[in-house]
Design goal:
single chain, 344 residues, alpha+beta, 9-stranded antiparallel sheet, two-stranded antiparallel sheet, flat
Amino acid sequence: MSHVSVHVLTAYPPSNPNRDEDGQPKTAVVGGKTRQRISSQCIKRAWRMSKPISQLDLPLSTRTRGLGSEIQRKLEAFGLAPKAAADRAKKIAERFGKVDSKKSPDHSEMVIYGHEEWAACMNLAETIGKEGRDPTSEELESVAQRTVSLDCALFGRMRAAEPRLNVDAAVSVSHCLTANIANVDSDFWTSVDDLKQRDEESDRGSGGMGDVEYGSGVYYTYVDVDLKQLNENLKSADLSAKALVALIEAIATTTPSGHRSTFAHQGRASYLRIEIGQSSGNLFCSAYEAPVMGMTLAIDALRLSASKIQKAYDLDQVVVEMSVPEGQGSLKEVLTKVSAALPT
């Protein structure tokens, strides 16, 4: 039983939690019908930043292009001239990838720094800042390191220039798709200029205007956790179990924050199906290739699809469910049962 799979259904009210480059809700076509979509990258970030994950108090990575600027500021605090500080910061930053010629000493692309690497860079900056010198080749070689940062252990890390520092993801995540057909609407809005309202001579036109697209629906998400890989990444079966429980809680309670102040779409999962052992796999197409409307029908379709897969392939799995519409189970009970069923 080296895998734990999570099937989750979450109802989103009218909202735009993950938009494309034009501001439209992301979509995908399945079974010839358009569905609203939340990308796996978006939902994973929401989980990484969630309360359940942060409460584990385990170190996380830093994702940024701006390591060089952070080092430069640190060096300047020791009295180094800006150009000299930037040159030394660039030497350190180059250990992690190409530096942008126009924005030096920062990178041209995002880099994922394990907490060990970030600390090593800051310590090196402090050392050379105090001693007023360039970093040695040995010091530069030492800053890029293997990492056990929790988010890297869960979702992986690629370091193209140094494959030995790659981390294979233990968690695979589907794009979230609505079980129902997506109908994207537009909210045209105007804003009132308070000062114009006080001036009797002023026109009564709006102070500004715009529009926000949105949709709603029941989203299905599939998550597969390779426990063996997670144990290998974190170097601890105990930490892996804690991380898994926190991840399931994050999945059930966290939504992306896009346009949240406009739509208040903070919600919780209505249905969870946890499979420990052999997975049924991503059930979206077998359950929702023909769109269904409403949470009750979505739950029924998911259960039916899972049972057919389990019977056809004689899957060896322990199944734990929570269904809010049916008053079945609770998140606390699910997490307790999952913890008890994990291999020791």
